[in-house]
Design goal:
65 residues; mainly alpha
Length: 65
């Protein structure tokens, strides 16, 4: 869960930075639909990877004596 939280907080920080750039009326670093889609895809992938990893660890730990 720590990796998911780290990924989510990084993406939120990146989005905040882009929103601040957009609010300052500069085109450099402006938040665009592409960045939003990339952030959402990365978040979904990180969440899925975390769930799969967590399930795999739980499954293997149940096999231990």
């Amino acid at each position: 869960m720590h990796i998911i939280w780290m990924t989510a907080s990084y993406l939120v920080g990146l989005a905040r930075q882009r929103v601040r750039a957009l609010a300052n009326s500069s085109d450099a670093g402006a938040l665009s639909l592409e960045w939003i889609v990339i952030a959402v895809v990365l978040f979904i992938a990180a969440t899925a990877a975390g769930v799969v990893f967590s399930n795999a660890v739980s499954s293997e730990s149940a096999k231990l004596p």
